[in-house]
Design a protein that fits this description.
The protein is of the alpha/beta class. It contains 8 helices and 8 strands. Helix content is 33%, strand content 23%. It has an 8-stranded mixed beta sheet with strand order 3-1-2-4-5-6-7-8. The longest helix is centred in the middle third of the chain and has 13 residues. The structure holds iron/sulfur cluster. Iron/sulfur cluster binds next to loops.
Length: 224
């Protein structure tokens, strides 16, 4: 366990928005995308903290009773960039009867990691471009492994809340029966101060924040 290491940005205890129940969230360092709305730009550029598997598992175990109706979410950054560590982490947490889901952009299709985890939260990035072809490979594997997938999507007003973009999402949902849930997330600018601290421009400064009404319109269009 000591030899198995990863770089993480932080461990957050007590999230109610990263999957079912209360959860510990491991934010991994490093990402292979640069989304303009990203809330965690520090994971792109900062080196994070090197952690061993045993240390991370010990830290999570302290919250075991607290997360008994939830579990652990691997997030970032992009956890699949550190897939080997994530596989070992899943095994170690399963030994403790703790379930693990992974938040991902779906660009890295590591079949073993998809198989071993207990669920996937796949954030579809369709804001400025079409959905990357690699995401469909990823979904094909989730389908094959009968993995529970929650499809998430950050709605940015005037950018990806058009009928065309929403109908595309609907057709993805209808194609893959492994997608059991769809959750729209409203674009927010709470992260702006992080960009200032990092001396980076906030790419989506010009867009308006999303509202509850925007989310409802998207759910209605997708008939959920
Ligand atoms: S994939 Fe996630 S962590 Fe990476 S830039 Fe996009 S929102 Fe940020």
């Amino acid at each position: 366990m000591e030899k198995c290491k990863a770089r993480i940005d932080s461990l957050y205890n007590g999230s109610a928005v990263d999957g079912k129940g209360l959860r510990c969230v491991v934010f991994f360092t490093g990402c292979n995308m640069r989304c303009g709305f990203c809330h965690n730009p520090e994971t792109w550029t900062e080196k994070g903290i090197e952690t061993t598997l045993s240390d991370l598992v010990a830290r999570i175990k302290r919250y075991k009773s607290y997360i008994k109706n939830g579990g652990v979410t691997l997030s970032g950054g992009e956890p699949f960039l550190q897939a080997e560590f994530c596989k070992e982490l899943c095994k170690a947490l399963h030994n403790e009867d703790i379930s693990v889901i992974i938040e991902t952009n779906g660009l890295i299709c590591d079949k073993e990691l998809i198989e071993i985890c207990d669920g996937i939260r796949l954030d579809i990035k369709n804001q400025e471009r079409d959905v990357d072809k690699r995401v469909f490979d990823f979904l094909n594997t989730c389908q094959e492994k009968e993995k529970f997938v929650t499809m998430t999507n950050v709605l940015v007003p005037s950018l990806n809340d058009t009928a065309e973009k929403l109908n595309n999402l609907k057709s993805i949902k209808e194609t893959y029966s492994c997608i059991k849930e769809v959750k729209f997330l409203a674009f927010r600018k709470l992260c702006e101060s992080k960009y200032s601290r990092l001396n980076m421009p906030f790419p989506y400064e010009k867009y308006q924040e999303g509202t509850k009404a925007d989310l409802q319109r998207a759910y209605d269009l997708m008939s959920f």
